[in-house]
TrEMBL record:
It comes from the Bacteria. The keyword Iron-sulfur does not apply. This is Glycine betaine/L-proline transport ATP binding subunit. It comes from Caballeronia temeraria. Pfam families: ABC_tran. Residues 2-239 form the ABC transporter domain. InterPro entries: AAA+_ATPase, ABC_transporter-like_ATP-bd, ABC_transporter-like_CS, CBS_dom, CBS_dom_sf, P-loop_NTPase.
Length: 394
């Protein structure tokens, strides 16, 4: 846990006005907190006070409940991993030597350092055999930043400070390293303070986001809370006019899927299928195969044109399916691309989990439907609805 209490920093050259002004905040163990705000608002200075690259003017910094002012500075820095945009790899050392530096200072033996270096390189998706003997000049900017992250993790510090660590990476590689780092951070339960300029990065990475303004914290909250309820005009402005769309990125198709029982299968009585449509005030049924995977859909017209039971020839092709883990912004974009008002959601095995509709997503973006609440158009099955597909309902 990182606990900042009434932390203030004044630089003499900057006069009486503090650049960090009496801030208090707590980052719980295993949490990643992003410091976000305009240039010059004191984010980096806050970070640097934690590992004492900058000496606080006043206030307290506690790590794991202990006041860091009492720690020996070398010991303090060994306990805190630090990754910065400029990376700062030593050019005359190999990648392995760069990563092994702190473990070596801690007196680890060579086999342990080698094993750790191999694990960390694999973790950041760099092949250990190829990259351990390489020099920083042999690597791209993005690869250097990956090594920088591996080095910050080397001695397994409980706390990590990261200052725009992915800032120099192109957007495509940045997305993948953000995903990888978030996965590593969650699985290793590192407590991380992460400075960013990038609102999308902050919303994606942070358990909490602290919005800084002129050395003060304007609002600290979860990404969803910040987007849904910005505490001030400054925060609303900062998170952007498209905050409803940004919120959609934080939500998954699984949270939006509705009416998993509104389904049919080939061979089912057409009269029952029509009754199911009536009872749900719906104009379509997803048709499932024996494994509960969507194979198409039918509406009243197909049912009217067919015989007594539903036949494969009546089933219309689905334009696409949505995976449960897809974020709702991507789903919205799929709906628009296909000109569809809904698409079937499927789980990791391809089994139907429900309808993901345009209306439901719009309603979630507005915040009208917290997950779990019924959407206004979700009409529950009437008690006399035929039990066409109990096997598919979940
Ligand atoms: N050593 C220093 N001496 C004097 N002023 C400094 C020093 N370090 C930082 N500052 C000033 O303190 C203010 C806050 O700087 P800081 O680097 O913490 O901001 P930031 O929010 O991290 O900005 P950015 O996003 O641009 O990195 C700035 O106005 C900066 O010029």
């Amino acid at each position: 846990m990182i606990d900042l209490r009434n932390l203030t920093k004044r630089f003499e050259s900057r006069g009486a006005k503090p650049v960090v002004d009496d801030i208090s905040m707590t980052v719980e163990e295993g949490e990643l907190c992003v410091l976000l705000g305009p240039s010059g608002c004191g984010k980096t200075t806050t970070l640097k006070m934690i590992n004492r690259l900058v000496q606080p003017t006043s206030g307290q910094i506690l790590i794991g409940g202990a006041d860091t002012a009492r720690f020996d500075i070398v010991e303090l820095r060994r306990r805190i991993g630090y990754a910065i945009q400029q990376v700062g790899l030593f050019p005359n050392m190999t990648v392995a030597e760069n990563i092994g530096l702190v473990p070596q200072m801690l007196g680890w033996d060579k086999p342990r350092i080698r094993a750790r270096t191999e694990t960390l390189l694999a973790m950041v998706s760099l092949d250990p055999a190829t990259y351990m003997p390489a020099y920083p000049r042999d690597l791209s900017g993005g690869q250097q930043q990956r090594v920088g992250v591996a080095r910050a993790l080397a001695a397994d510090p409980p706390v990590m400070l990261m200052d725009e660590p992915f800032g120099a990476i192109d957007p495509i590689n940045r997305t993948s390293i953000q995903d990888e780092f978030r996965h590593i951070q969650k699985s290793l339960r590192k407590t991380v303070m992460f400075v960013s300029h990038d609102i999308d990065e902050a919303m994606k990475m942070g358990d909490k986001v602290a919005i800084f303004r002129d050395g003060k914290i304007e609002q600290m909250a979860s990404p969803d809370e910040l987007l849904a309820r910005p505490a001030s005009a400054f925060v609303a402005d900062f998170v952007g006019a498209d905050r409803a769309l940004k919120r959609l990125r934080l939500m998954r198709a699984a949270d939006a899927a509705l009416e998993p029982a509104r389904v049919a299968r080939c061979g089912f009585p057409s009269a029952d299928a029509r009754a199911l449509l009536r009872n749900h005030l719906a104009d379509t049924l997803v048709v499932l195969d024996a494994q509960d995977k969507p194979v198409g859909h039918v509406g009243p017209m197909e049912l009217a044109a067919g015989g007594a039971t539903l036949d494969a020839a009546q089933v219309r092709v689905l334009p696409a399916v949505v995976r449960a883990s897809d974020d709702l912004r991507s789903v919205m974009s799929m709906l628009l691309a296909h000109g569809a008002s809904w698409l079937p959601g499927v789980d990791a095995d391809g089994r139907f989990i429900g309808y993901v509709t345009h209306e439901r997503i719009a309603s979630m973006a507005r915040g009208a439907c917290a997950s779990g609440e019924a959407s206004p158009h979700a009409i529950a099955a009437a008690p006399d609805a035929p039990e066409l597909a109990t096997g598919a309902a979940r």
